[in-house]
């Protein structure tokens, strides 16, 4: 193995932790963590050495997709709880879609009060480096967005033929995931597009003075796309401004939820396929905020919205796109298992997880083709 890989593996060992451990707790969700460990490593305790050994197998693993959990909801701002998404979604995937499980890198080590290192002063960074790495002058980042981008940059440098499937976490997490992906593909000369499912545009420049968050991440990855209209959004319905404002201001392409209902998911997918072919797009990244689905199907999320897509409509669009373009990166965001805002008897966190796992399994299988 190359020295680059050895250096990168050391970074993974320091900046990540075993799957499901991204939320730092002693007793909360202990049984759920133990169940996941049993399924993935065959034992509930002392799995850290087994996880480190599993990283050695990454270079020889033939599968294209690698899971990375980012258990952070610090970039959200409505109902919290998406930090539990990586643990719960993995468990649901293993239970309902075991055939789709792929190589698992583990979870980013998350200090839950932090977002990005650029918001921290040197003293705070030093203290957090000491807490995470037992060094006050470490080379590693301390905030979840910063760690994620660094880990993903190294991943694509070492494994250009593989892709990361990110599990969040709030949607701010998609900023480093897509940024690393787009930088790597641009360096390879690949033309890419971001397929974004969401009830919201996420096209704010900033929110309450913070430029990187769940409502603004799309704005800040536009510069890394071949063109702004290579960000294609599906399911939008909760916005203070109309479609014409967003498309004319940012140059993106949107298909609002009511349009998909009126025209049909097949027709919308055909429109997008024609656009992507005209733009000579080579590969796709899919970022899926679970609130793109109607609240009937996805109520366990930070901002559930009625009038959204059905799971079948989302699957029709994804299936048709995958038949024409390789999906080489993806993420599933904003599943908050302990947060269920639905009316009693209407929906549940189990329904949200079931639909999120079904879509995630499809994306993982598509990436592994």
UniProtKB/TrEMBL annotation:
A GO biological-process term: putrescine biosynthetic process from arginine, via agmatine
Keywords: Hydrolase, Metal-binding, Plasmid
Stretches of the chain forming a coiled coil according to its record: none
Keyword Metal-binding listed: yes
Molecular function per GO: agmatinase activity; metal ion binding
Family: Belongs to the arginase family.
UniProt protein name: Arginase family protein
Organism: Pseudoalteromonas xiamenensis
């Amino acid at each position: 193995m190359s020295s680059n890989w050895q250096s990168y593996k050391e970074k993974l060992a320091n900046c990540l932790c075993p799957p499901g451990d991204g939320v730092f707790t002693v007793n909360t969700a202990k049984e759920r963590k133990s169940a996941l460990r049993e399924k993935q490593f065959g034992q509930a305790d002392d799995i850290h050495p087994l996880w480190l050994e599993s990283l050695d197998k990454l270079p020889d693993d033939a599968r294209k997709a690698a899971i990375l959990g980012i258990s952070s909801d610090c970039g959200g701002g409505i109902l919290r709880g998406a930090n539990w998404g990586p643990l719960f979604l993995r468990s649901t995937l293993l239970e309902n879609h075991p055939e789709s499980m792929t190589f698992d890198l583990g979870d980013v080590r998350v200090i839950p009060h932090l977002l990005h290192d650029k918001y921290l002063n040197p003293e705070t960074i030093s203290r957090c480096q000491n807490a995470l790495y037992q060094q006050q002058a470490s080379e590693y980042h301390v905030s979840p967005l910063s760690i994620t981008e660094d880990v993903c940059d190294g991943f694509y440098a070492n494994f250009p033929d593989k892709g990361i499937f990110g599990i969040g976490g709030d949607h701010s997490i998609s900023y480093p995931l897509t940024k690393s992906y787009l930088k790597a593909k641009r360096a390879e000369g690949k033309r890419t597009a971001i397929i974004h499912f969401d009830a919201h545009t996420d096209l704010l420049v900033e929110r309450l003075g913070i430029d990187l968050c769940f409502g603004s991440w799309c704005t800040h990855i536009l510069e890394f796309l071949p063109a702004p209209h290579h960000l294609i959004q599906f399911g939008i319905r909760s916005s203070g401004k109309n479609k014409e404002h967003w498309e004319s201001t940012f140059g993106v392409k949107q298909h609002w939820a009511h349009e998909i209902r009126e025209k049909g998911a097949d027709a919308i997918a055909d429109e997008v396929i024609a656009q992507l072919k005209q733009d000579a797009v080579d590969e796709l990244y899919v970022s899926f905020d679970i609130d793109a689905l109607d609240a009937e199907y996805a109520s366990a999320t930070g901002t559930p919205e009625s009038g959204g897509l059905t799971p079948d409509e989302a699957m029709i669009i994804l299936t048709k796109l995958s038949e024409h373009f390789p999906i080489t990166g993806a993420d599933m965001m904003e599943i908050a298992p302990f947060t269920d805002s639905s009316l009693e008897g209407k929906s549940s966190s189990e329904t949200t997880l079931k639909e999120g796992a079904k879509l995630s399994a499809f994306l993982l299988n598509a990436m592994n083709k």
